[in-house]
Design goal:
MetI-like fold; 12 helices; 269 residues
Amino acid sequence: MTDAASGASGGTRPFWVRIYPVVLALLAWEALALLVDDPLFLPRFSSVAATFWSMLTNGQLLDDTAASLSRALLGFAVAFVLGVPLGVLMGWSRRWDDFWSLLVSFSNPIPKIGLVPLFLLWFGIGEQSKVAVIAASALFPVLINTYNGVRAINPLWIWRARTVGVGRFEILWSVVLPAALPSIFTGARLGMALAWVILLAAEMVSARSGLGFRILYGQQMFETDVVFAGLLTISLLGFAFDRLIIFLSQHVCGWHFRLGQHDSPTERT
């Protein structure tokens, strides 16, 4: 079997092939920190790992992670619940597209970090302001990718459904939405990544708990290893949820990843 064929059929590579670049990067970090010899500027990875373990065992990291996780997931859920239906309707209906397209294009470039002080004025320093700014950030990747997924559907699939007498709503539910799922999952990956980025900014400004707060605390106390431990935790959480979304997309949209990915999703077996 050729390399192209094995790749198309979902052949997996040995685990070490994928993990060794990470190991090399960590070893390079350790070596560079030893060379710099300034823990305030760049602590050794082994020191960061020890700090991470200490924060984990004393419960501090678990409390901060739980607070950040609830905010990130709630904000992402709001963005997903709003973005997917709106993206589907904009891609499916010219009227909805005409009404919302300019508003989306105008508001998307607004720096979402700049919304933090505005949302603090609107919602106060509680959880609502943090969730709102996360939702506002994650909304646009979900919405735009959903819209593009609907617009990119092969018109032949819709024509086939109409020729057998399928109604408009049934086409939307049984043909359009399944065909747009790969793009929806792509938007979910991008939205989840942005949720963690904006979470950090929101917690640095107004939180008394969470990973962003802990990173800011480490910076103020000149504990660079705490800063890196917090960043490492966010990286691990972001990686875990990204892998989860990929796992779900491969199982829900298996037809898209097989050789016959250009067939209609309604015809998969």
